[in-house]
Every structure is written in C-alpha cells, then in structure tokens.
Amino acid sequence: MQQIEVTKDDIILSVSSIKDLQSCWRKFYFRHEALIVPKYTPSPLQIGSAFHEGLQAFYEGESPEEVLKRIRENYQSQEQEYDDETYIKQCNDNSRITRAMLIGYMNKYKPDEFDKIQPEAEFCILIHEESELRVWIVGKRDGIWKKDGKWWLLENKTFGGTDFENYKKKLALDIQSTIYMLA
C-alpha cells in the first residue's frame, strides 16, 4: 500500500468511517477521531473479521484443515483475553458459525478457479487536493482476480441480521462496492 505522509490538515476516510459519518456524527467521532473502541467485539464484526481472515488464508494456499484450525485458534486467543462467561460463549458460538461458513465456502469455491492476482488488496486513493487540504480514501478489497482474460473484484459479505431480503436491497446500493470499483 502506498505510504501516506499525513499532515494535520489531511482527511483519511474509509468505507467504515463514511458509513459512521452518514449514520451518526458522535459514532464517527468516538471511533475515528477519539479512537475509542468497545471492550468486546460485537458478534457480526467478530464473525466477519474471522471469515475474511479464513478466506485470505484459503486463497493464499492454506489447506481447508489449516484454515479451520487458524480460525479455531483465533477465537481461543480472544476467549483468553477476558474472564467473562458471556463473551467466552459468544466466541465459542461464533467460532462454530465462522467455521461452518468457511466449510461451505471452501466446498463451493476452489482457490485455483481464478488466476490469483492479489488477495486482501489494500488501496489508498487521493480523492481531493486543494491548497493544504488533502482527502484520502483507504481500504482493503477481498481480492482482485483474473479469469479467462477478464478482471474480477472479489468482495465477500457476511450478515449479522435476520432480515435477509432487506439486506439484499441495501447491498445493491452499498457505497463500498462503488468505492472498491473506483480503487
């Protein structure tokens, strides 16, 4: 990823910070300015992060067995950080969910299906520059792939809710896809 020489006037945005800014200024401030994070990782974020870690390992050549072991160990290390039965149960439940998702994914898709170009591809784009003000957008795509001479943007989504139909409608208009295509 390109190194950014940040000045006090630079603004660095990500899809996450843009969504937080759109939904709640206070949430944006606490997460992205004051850098205050919750003590415990919420389940959807925990599952999504672990799932993406597993996919990266899978596409970088780890066997399905190694991927599942990595995810199990990831959750076990999170459990050890806290002496909280509720959080430990969350980690156990989420570990099973994540590993089941990965088993389904690894059975359906094969790592050699695409010519590997770049998994977990980071980007940094200068989107505005004026005098002393620069605005950057940064992020990490799940992958950029090439198959049969065509380029593909790989972006896997996890969902922590139950209203799947509503989620599919939102996904079609998701700003993340647009920004990642631009990058």
Task: Provide a compact summary of the structure.
51% of the residues lie in helices and 21% in strands. It is of the alpha+beta class. A hairpin with a 2-residue loop joins strand 3 (133-147) and strand 4.
State the major sheet: 4 strands, mixed
Helical stretch count? Answer: 7
Secondary-structure content class? alpha+beta
N-C termini distance: 12 Å
Indicate the radius of gyration in whole angstroms: 18 Å
**How many β-strand runs?**
4
Indicate the low-confidence ranges by residue numbers: none
Order of helices and strands: EHHHHHEEEHH
| Strand fraction | 15-25%
Secondary structure blueprint with pairings:
Layout: E1 11-13, H1 15-23, H2 25-33, H3 43-59, H4 64-80, H5 85-108, E2 115-130, E3 133-147, E4 150-154, H6 164-172, H7 175-182
Parallel strand pairs: 1-3
Antiparallel strand pairs: 2-3, 3-4
Helix pairs in contact: 1-2, 3-4, 3-5, 4-5
How would you characterize the overall build of this protein?
The two termini are 12 Å apart. This protein is of the alpha+beta class and 183 residues long. The mean pLDDT is 84. A hairpin with a 2-residue loop joins strand 2 and strand 3. It is built from seven helices and four strands, in the order E-H-H-H-H-H-E-E-E-H-H. Helix content is 51%, strand content 21%. The chain is globular and about 55 Å long. Strands 1, 2, 3 and 4 form a four-stranded mixed β-sheet that branches.
